Amino acid sequence: MAAPQGLFARVMARFEDDADDGLSPSLLKGIRARVALNHFKREVLGHLHVPGKAQASALFEALERGAMKIAPKDLSSHAEFRSLGWLGMRLGTRGWQGWFGADARVPRPGKQLALDTVAEHLIQWSRPADDAALALPNDFYSSLISGGLLPTMLAETEAAGPSSDLLRARARAYRPKSAWHLHLDALELRAFCGDFPGASWVEIVQIAGGRILDALNRLWRPIDGQIYAMLSSDTRRQWTASSSEERARIQAEFARLRPDQFASSMIAGARPSWSLTGVGVDMPDVHVHRLLFALGADADFLHGDRLCAWALDLATAGLAARALAWTDRYRKLGRQVSEELLYLAAIDSLLLSGVSAEAAASEDSEAVHLEEVDRELQAAMACTGGDWSRAGVSALYRGRAAYLAELADLDLSIEEVEHLSRRAQTRQPLVFVGDTPARDPAATPPTLGHRHGLWGQLGEASYRRQGLGDVPYFGELPPDPSEASSS
Hints:
single chain; 487 residues; mainly alpha; globular
């Protein structure tokens, strides 16, 4: 079930009520619903999905066809059988249309559960490693709309507010259900500021940010990262892209060996060439954003489902890592240029920033944007210790294209992501007067994106949707074995 909103919802409402940033004050609460509804529609309609459009007729017709296909024959053949009711779709086309458009409403809890019920019957995702058709995790859509890490941590208690110990316990127990759940958690965290009863903003962000980075580290760390077994193997990628003649040749090559490893190779999962990345096995959890950035050196690894999964999780890591750094901004993001600043500036510029006004005026705004941020990317690439001689920036550029395509497919713009990413630092800025930090809440903070970013601090002056496939879900993260052994 979705986590109770309680205290978190009230404080966020107060935070939004005094916002004067020009975007809808309901953006933070409506963005989850928009992503969830477009995701649901994409899963049902497939290639017929049009982002941001209700498509009520097409959707309900597809639901009826799906129900007739999977319902028991003795039920579906009955004259009074109601396919939508059997699926659990407890609303009509008019209600569905009210969730889209300029005056879109956030679905109420009962309607959110209806989406979960339909998903249990009708929606499956294909695991890239073996093409297995799997059900979505329970309460997928209701938790995407009304759940999340911060609401879980800050749910009301009988006391004045959750204690530090309770915040940590709730964060440890939280299990994101998909890459998109974790991404929205990180986006919400990046936009969050304001103290709560019994807990400061700094403490809340540090606990939540640490949990997000820990979840990503469990997925992507060397040796035992959990995501690699879910991704397509090199053999499967080659097989999928091959003609019938080429497939026969692939099988013949495997058949020469004893035992024949073709079947196991098809489901072997994926592994990066860690020697290219410069990543060590002992990299700390809180540096997983550096690990993910360094994977850009292995351009052969980052294709298809792997590219999509990596790009979304790199953006998630960048959001969480910057939120964490902002709690200690005068030391980590001050005037001294550190490796952390170089990494965060590169990820922000690559994935979390829209194009500048100058780039927007050009015929190919994305190409101009990438030229503008090239120095920030090169600075971070030099920090990884990896071998970028073969990959260059090619995989990083493809990652931006994949991330923007995924955002667009769920009716979310890079400008909205950038706007939310800047809200906390706008309200709690990093300001210097002379050589002394001055915490002036009314001052305008410097941005670390591509417009006045790292190189401005130092005093120096189109990709289209590529059909890269869905971002693979990793479901609910199991407990880390190290936690079990330590307890």
